[in-house]
Specification:
about 375 residues, alpha/beta, Purple Acid Phosphatase, chain A, domain 2, 9-stranded mixed β-sheet, 6-stranded mixed β-sheet, globular, lipoprotein
């Protein structure tokens, strides 16, 4: 494993204690008032990267549960202060769930269904579920995953158990806004879609995405958010497909409004740039929020695979009905998954506790700003 500073562990302990002290109301936290947009009937949305439980992550959750069952709440606690304060919080559940103790990591993932309870306890309202691992255990894996998310009260988009579900847009409430969440993946690692269930996983297709976005808007969605599992693994910069598709999707408009209001990217294993494209924010890649030790294409351990960001966007309502809800503040928060401690770490908070993580924080910041997002108003949040 990649050695971490002892200071990180000390900071982590303090952060977890602070997270545990959060109030039961997920929209309030002592000393952390809600963003001002809420007072103006706006809302805040946060989104985070891939949840990818390797075997070591499963083992850690078993340990955290005292050897009986699996508890993912402690490893996600470092994200709870950010996630819990948002009006709407979205994650990316990259893997499917197994059953009866039959859980596996790479290459064909089957995660404990207790992951869903951990996500709910952290404050997530919904997750994208379309990824290259969506068919690792066929249609049954999708069914178990969505069943577990339903039991935990976590909404989902990107995969489906029935054709009717596949045709239904996921809509979540955020303050006074109706937010549609759509999700798609570039592929499924060569696993074919079930012959009798071609709708089981949403695949990236520009025309399909725009048609779904327009359907959501006609159905009353004030804001349309699209999650895309795309890009080139281990590449800090977005690839040509990401850049081209982002331009096309953000350029599409119906009447006075763009068809898509926000794009959230996953898959590359590393943090990628944020960019304002045609007036719409695009996160090309948030990185892995939870993952075991990662090895790049050369087979070498690569610490970037345990670095990520949380995006936070404050939306304000339009001045007139039918106009666009605008992002009035765009932020990112750099994170690290400490593979030794098995914990998500908010790097800015860790720095305040004296951890020696400045170089990691600054590397993530430089990547996030690499396409000029700072000039368009993106800031590093707390």
């Amino acid at each position: 494993m990649i050695a971490r500073s002892r200071q990180v562990a000390l900071a982590l302990t303090a952060l977890l204690a602070a997270g545990a002290a959060c109030q039961a109301d997920r929209h309030e936290s002592p000393g952390h008032p809600a963003p001002s947009a809420a007072d103006a009937r706006g809302f805040t949305l946060v989104a985070s990267g891939d949840v990818l439980p390797h075997s070591s992550i499963i083992d850690r959750a078993r340990f955290d549960a005292g050897g009986s069952g699996y508890d993912f709440r402690p490893m996600l606690a470092g994200a709870k202060p950010l996630v819990g304060r948002a009006d709407l919080a979205l994650c990316h559940m990259e893997t499917v769930y197994g059953a009866d103790g039959n859980y596996t990591g790479y290459p064909a993932f089957k995660s404990p269904p207790e992951v869903a309870a951990g996500l709910a306890a952290t404050g997530y309202d919904g997750c994208s579920t379309a990824s290259n691992h969506s068919l690792d255990d066929g249609a049954e894996g999708i069914r178990r995953t969505l069943d577990a998310l339903d039991r935990a009260g976590v909404r989902h988009a990107g995969s489906a158990r029935t054709e009717a579900e596949a045709r239904t847009v996921t809509v979540l409430r955020a303050g006074e806004a109706q937010v549609a969440h759509l999700a798609y993946t570039y592929g499924t690692n060569g696993y074919p879609l079930p012959a009798d269930q071609p709708w089981a996983v949403n695949l990236i297709d520009e025309a399909r995405i725009l048609a779904d976005a327009r359907t959501a808007r006609r159905a009353g969605a004030d804001v349309v958010v699209v999650s895309l599992h795309w890009g080139t693994e281990w590449q800090d910069e977005p690839d040509r497909q990401q850049v081209t598709l982002a331009r096309s999707l953000t350029a599409a408009r119906t009447g006075e409004r763009p068809d898509i209001d926000l794009i959230l990217g996953t898959h590359a294993h590393v943090p990628q740039a944020y960019e304002k494209v045609n007036g719409t924010w695009v996160i090309y890649g948030m990185g892995d929020q939870v993952a075991g030790q990662m090895f790049n294409h050369s087979g070498s351990p690569d610490p970037r695979g345990n670095q990520s960001t949380i995006g936070r966007f404050t939306f304000a309502p339009p001045a007139k009905a039918g106009a666009r809800w605008k992002v009035t503040k765009a932020e990112f928060v750099p994170q690290l998954f400490d593979i030794d401690a098995g914990r998500v770490v908010d790097l800015n908070q860790a720095l305040k506790q004296g951890a020696d993580v400045t170089a990691v924080r600054d590397r993530i910041r430089d990547v996030v700003f690499s396409r000029g997002a700072d000039k368009d108003g993106l800031v590093m949040g707390e």
